[in-house]
TrEMBL record:
Any one GO biological process: DNA transposition
InterPro entries: Homeodomain-like_sf, Transposase_8, Transposase_8_domain
Protein name: Transposase
Coiled-coil intervals: none
Organism lineage: Bacteria, Pseudomonadati, Pseudomonadota, Betaproteobacteria, Burkholderiales
GO MF, one annotated term: DNA binding
Source organism, top-level taxon: Bacteria
Length: 87
C-alpha cells in the first residue's frame, strides 16, 4: 500500500476540526487516517499554526541532517581505533 503524505495545511485543518467538538471517530474517518496518525500529529503540533509547523518540520529535518553529519566521522574514528587496537 502506498504511503500517503499530508501537507502541513491539511494536518492543521484536521487538527483544527478536532477542537470544536466533532466526534473523533467521524473526523478520522472523513480524513482517512488511522487514530495513531491523528495522535502522532496532535502531540508535537498542538496549537501551532501552519507557518510554525512548517518551521518546526524544517528544524527537525536540519537536526536529523546535523546528527548524521556528526555520526559519520565518529563512526570512522571508532572503526580506525578498533582496527588499531587489533594490530
Amino acid at each position: 500500500m502506498k504511503r500517503r503524505r499530508f501537507s502541513i495545511e491539511q494536518i492543521v485543518t484536521v487538527l483544527k476540526q478536532a477542537e470544536p467538538g466533532m466526534p473523533l471517530a467521524d473526523l478520522i474517518r472523513r480524513a482517512g487516517i488511522p487514530v495513531q496518525t491523528f495522535y502522532g500529529w496532535k502531540k508535537p503540533c498542538a496549537g501551532m499554526q501552519s507557518d510554525r509547523m512548517r518551521e518546526h518540520e524544517r528544524l527537525q529535518d536540519e537536526k536529523a541532517r546535523l546528527q548524521k553529519r556528526v555520526a559519520q566521522p565518529s563512526l570512522g574514528v571508532a572503526i580506525l581505533q578498533d582496527a588499531a587496537s587489533k594490530m
